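Dear support,

Our group has been running a series of protein-ligand predictions, and this particular one with zinc ion is the one our PI (initials K.S.) wants archived with full inputs and outputs. We had some confusion internally about which version of the output was final, so please treat the block below as the authoritative record. The input we submitted was:
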Amino acid sequence: MGYQDGVKKIPAAAISTRDAEKLSALLRGGEPLRVRLILSCRTLPDAPSANVAGEITGTEKPGEVIVVGGHLDAWDKGSGAHDDGAGCVQAIEALDLIRTLGRTLGLKPVRTIRAVMFMNEENGLRGGRGYVADPLRRSEKHVAMIESDAGGFAPRGFFVDADSAVRTQVFRWKTVMEKVNAGRLLAGRSGVDISPMVATGVPGFGLDPENHRYFDYHHSDKDTPDKVNPRELEMGAIAEALLAYIIAQEGLPSEPATRSR
Ligand SMILES: [Zn+2]
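Confirmed final output from the archive:
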């Protein structure tokens, strides 16, 4: 929900999927229903905040960047473990995994792989927009944006938000991605935080995990760390690390001026 300029602001509230389903079940029961809603929230003036980023600099093409990200803020219910603590932890883990493989097997990404924890996704996408607007971006070329923001569940694949040339190349990696249970590669929307960069023509990738239980927790008090299975979370990080590393080594077909989807 957002307010348009010039329109009188009326109180508004969002309820979680769980509560919405409970409410509609009660309504279906046919009994008269009264809901008491106490809203104590306020919109305070904007204050400075920041994205948090770290990277492994590419050995040959350091100015070409693959981002692996999630968002640092959470809905003001629960602790935001799945949404999006999982995505942040997976971005850090993906880089740590690649760094470890560099130390142990000498695998070094040709292009830069950067973990970005975007600030303020839930309340206005300011981190994602700020990332694109940052003057530091002018000297960089972004090759791909990868995001995990659909829960820390067992990975199944990635949604690929890119033109047909990129999709054709990525779909060829199905067999190798299947080795980490992430071979379901489909055209689709990638992620909210990375959407401002994807809108400029950079290919976007959204981790697509098992989604059967996400809305048991999403934006509710129940989104706490005990709901995240460590092994499933790790598998998602591994899938992101593998995809980021392949793109870092192989690159992607450059985007035409106008995108055909
Ligand atoms: Zn989220």
